[in-house]
Structure formats: C-alpha cells, structure tokens
Amino acid sequence: MLAAVDSITQAVLGAAVGELMLGRKLGNRALAWGAFFGTLPDLDVVVGPFLDNAANLWWHRGPSHSLLVMALAAWLFSPWLATRWKRDKISRAHAAWFVLAVWSTHVLIDCFTVYGTSVTWPFSGHRMGFNHLFIIDFFYTLPMLVALVWLAFLRNKKQLPKRRRLNAWGLGLSTAYAALGVLMKFNASAGFDADLARRGVDYQRRMEAPTAFNIVLWRAVVDRGDELWVGYRSVFEAREKPVRWTVYPRGTGALEGLENMREVRRVQWFSDGWWIARRHAKGIWMADLRFGESRVWGVKEGIVDHRPAFAWDILPTADRDRLHPYYPAREHVGENLRRLVQRMAGDHDAWEAAPRLAGVTGSLPEFLPVVE
Fold first, then answer.
1. pLDDT tens for each residue of 98-121
2. Left, alpha or beta for 27 (phi > 0: left; psi -120 to 50: alpha)?
3. Element (H, E) at 325
4. What CA–CA distance (Å, rounded) separates 121 from 119?
5. Engineering a disulfide at 74: which of 51, 100, 160, 319 sits with its beta carbon 3.0 to 4.6 angstroms away?
6. Domain termination site, one of 180, 199, 226
7. One domain for residues 50 and 175
8. C-alpha distances in Å from residue 302, one per residue of 17, 246, 305, 355, 369
9. 173 located within any domain
C-alpha cells in the first residue's frame, strides 16, 4: 500500500513538472507524459520478482535513480519524443530537458526520505537520504493533486494563463512544505542535541527523521557503538523538555561466524549501519532502526512491544533465498497513528510505556532499558 501511494506522489510531481515545461504546447498530454516519466524510475520493481531478497535491497531505488541512468534516459527517449511531438514544434533538446527534469525531480524527492537513493551509482555505493520527509506525506502531495485536477479541465488557449497559475500554486505550496520540513528537522535536531549535551552522552553519530505523514513529530536514533538510542520529540516542545530514550543493544555478537555472509553484509549496507541483530536457532534476525517501529499495546498492562518496521531473518542453511523480510501486522496501524497524533499534541503517556523488543524469531519479548 505504501509503495502504491508513493507512486501516486511521483506521478503527481511528474505531471506538475510536465505541465510547467510543456503544458503550453501539449496541454493535458504534458500531464500524462509527465506522470509516465515521473513513475518510470520506480518500474525497477518489475525486475524484483526475478531477484532474491538480498539483490532487491540493492536494486530498488538503485541504478534507475542514478544520475548516469537519468542522463541516458534523456538521451535515448528524446529522439522518439521529438518525432512524436514534431507537429507541436518540440525539438529533441527540449524533449531531453523534459525527461531530465521530470526524472530528476522524482529522484530528488526520494532523496528527501530515509530510504535514500543510489544517485552516484556506479561510482559509489552510498545511498543519499536527507530524512526531511516521510516516504508518504499527503500534505506534500495534495496541493499539487488538487491543482492538477482543476487545471486539467481548462483546455482552451484562453485558459492557459490560469493553468499556469494553478500549477505554480500547487508546485509552490508543495515545495514550501518540503522546505518547511527542512526547517522542522533543524528544530528537532537542535532539541535532541541539547538533551544529549545536558546528559553528557558521547555518541558516534545521530540521525533524525519525521514520523508517519507529518513533519511535527520527529524520531532520533543515536549510535553509541554497542547500542542504539531511540527518542521522540515534537517541534512544539520546549528545548528543555527531556527526551525519553529507549536503548536497543546492538547485538554484534549475534553475527559471530556469519559476518561475511552476503545477506548479512547486504543488510548492514542497506541500513547504513543502523542495525541491530539477535541470534536464533536457525540463523540471525536483523532490523534496520531508521524506519521506526510498530507498537503493540495491551499484551500486558503498562508494557508496549516494539516491532521494527524493517526486519529480516537470515537463514544460512536455506536451500534458496537466505534472506526473509519481516513485516509488522497491519491491524495495529490505526492505533499507532491515533497514538502518534496524541503524542504530537503532547500526551507522552499515549505513546510511551515499558518497552520490549518483540518479533525476534524464536525469542520471547526482550525488555529494553530506558533513559529518562
């Protein structure tokens, strides 16, 4: 479901950029072609069924999102598009810039999320992610969507100026929201930094990312080597307000003897080092803590179970695919969102309780330390 909504955002952004560049000459065709090229980089999922899970971690948002492939696509598609649009007097160069602009805005907005993209492939394996927006944010998408639906009904030449104004408003509001996300991140980061400084906590690195569908409540992960700390903070909270940190022991020893497995190294690379691991009878359970956790209340009074959103089982003796992804149950999504809204409003008790790490294969929930 998240992937489908993410594709809608990319199609809407592509259509808006298409209207900006070619709307005067192509009309609504510019919307359609912009939406097509806006989603084309994510068609890497078509290859997914032919790859194992470890390869898929590398492939998705991989080469198709790189500057090299972006330039190649503009070069390859432009002659065909120029021929197709010959009557509209669109040159090959103009067609190439159209493809490049739409493709690059797709990649840019992907870079604003935690997942990151392989922009510099094949020259570097590093994925670029700025962590300013959640992978899906309706407040970013809706202004463009409303503007595009409206302007699509304005088809005669006299209405062209109004089309351009509507598109400018839609793109402008969405861009302003993305820029606001950057400012909100600076605000949240300063609050986390102040809390850790007051405590005198030494750490190697820290990251912040917004929680689901908003830029108000932020989640920080602090790398202290043998453990990762996770805390939440609203941008409306005073900087003096203490952050409640949940401590996740990293579990480096769980990898002993298996650290050179392709699947282990792929998860370590994909998570950019923000992983935890636990050993079990059949292999290793690993999770990427950048993406947050699903929380389950009511198992025991005063206790909340944390289930990382991105987790895998690595099974060394499996006959075929040795990496198996784990997905938290969907029935808790509604309660998590409701409690997140309460947490945004300042109700800490709605979100926090005695934490346990749950969902580790073959293990009972593990109580996690808390620093308050």
1. 999 999 999 999 999 999 899 999
2. left
3. strand 323-326
4. 6
5. 100
6. 180
7. yes
8. 50, 15, 10, 9, 15
9. yes
